[in-house]
Write a structure and sequence with these properties.
Blueprint: E1 7-8, E2 17-18, H1 23-30, E3 37-40, H2 44-49, H3 52-59, E4 63-68, E5 79-83, H4 84-93, E6 98-103, H5 105-108, H6 112-118, E7 132-141, E8 146-150, E9 156-163, E10 166-171, E11 208-212, E12 216-220, E13 225-230, E14 234-242, H7 249-252, H8 258-272, H9 276-293, E15 305-306
Helix pairs in contact: 3-4, 8-9
The chain binds 2-oxoglutaric acid (AKG).
Length: 308
């Protein structure tokens, strides 16, 4: 829900863009250096097939879980189950209270997995040859909704914009203290309109931004903080993955508080050895312990943004 008048947003320097890029260059010059980049993947046919209208047409009757956007912290948002067509209509008509974050949607909506396998998204061709543990997330969002500022841990992510535009703001790792995240992967700051009285350390941080249009892809490297604002009703598909040339969290998080860095590196090491259950339990225990000793800061409200 939009609770306040539109606010003039801050602008940040652009994320580097490449017109076309092959997967070797992407791996060598960006992935292995933990640097973001935007490039064009094309795939008009794919984008048409996964547009809001086409999705409603093919899968409209399937019940899917949507996220209520009233709460700012992602972990606290309530979920409701609705037919996909209702969500698409709500998104297109501008109801800002719900968005669909289809994590593992392929398992839940009959037919979608086969559809994606039969005609893979264009950014798949840019994944490094050794990419594994792929996890697709489809997002359907009304305009003016925001994904809070967070990072995705030790997963790299290629995000394809399918319909509408999304504004991505990125900040490099680690910055845990400057973003008042207190060791969690989510920050209370709305970086588009930062409240500098409450979060003075945000000033001067090296944020960069890009507005993605259909057919464009963002490489969002591991541990980069990101906050995403939906400019028009939008559909995008993010693919998280691991790859053979992994950078160690220890080096990526250089400068992070030592406890956070050590526990993150241990959990990532366990995952690499296939001990996902233990790694996740460790992470959950760590978060729970942290939440008990560190009071959570009230997040800044999300709001509708306008350009100056
Ligand atoms: O598209 C969005 O709103 C959020 C994307 C995101 O956070 C992700 O892919 O990890």
């Amino acid at each position: 829900m939009i609770r306040s008048a539109p606010r003039v947003r801050r602008r940040y320097p652009p994320i580097e863009r490449r017109e076309a890029i092959d997967r070797e260059t992407l791996e060598r010059d960006y992935l292995s250096k933990n640097r973001p980049v935007v490039f064009t993947a094309g795939g008009e046919g794919f984008c048409d097939r996964w547009s809001p209208a086409a999705l409603a047409d093919r899968y409209g009757r399937c019940p899917v879980e949507a996220e209520e956007t009233r709460e700012v912290y992602v972990g606290e948002r309530a979920h409701v189950t609705r037919p996909l067509a209702d969500l698409v209509t709500a998104a297109l008509e501008g109801d800002p209270t719900l968005r669909w974050k289809g994590l593992e949607f392929l398992k839940r909506v009959p037919g979608m997995q086969g559809d994606l396998d039969a005609r893979p998204p264009p950014h798949r061709a840019h994944l490094p040859a050794s990419a594994g543990a792929l996890r697709d997330t489809l997002w359907i969002a009304p305009r003016a909704t925001t994904s809070s500022l967070h990072h995705d841990g030790d997963y790299d992510n290629l995000n394809l914009q399918i319909a509408g535009r999304k504004l991505f703001l990125l900040l490099p790792p680690p910055l845990h203290e400057d973003l008042d995240s207190y060791g969690s992967a989510e920050s209370p700051i709305n970086p588009f309109v930062p409240d500098l009285e409450r979060f003075p350390r945000f000033e001067g941080l090296p944020a960069v931004e890009a507005t993605l249009a259909p057919g464009e892809v963002l490489l969002l490297p591991k541990y980069w903080w990101h906050c995403v604002y939906t400019v028009d009703p939008a559909v995008n598909l993010s693919t998280h993955f691991r790859w053979g040339g992994e950078l160690s969290p220890w080096s990526v998080l250089a400068g992070a508080p030592i406890v956070h860095r050590s526990l993150t590196a241990i959990a990532a090491g366990m995952k690499r050895r296939g001990l996902h259950g233990i790694a996740d339990a460790t992470r959950r225990a760590w978060c729970a312990a942290y939440a008990r000793v560190v009071p959570r800061t009230t997040p800044q409200e999300r709001c509708e943004l306008v350009d100056a």
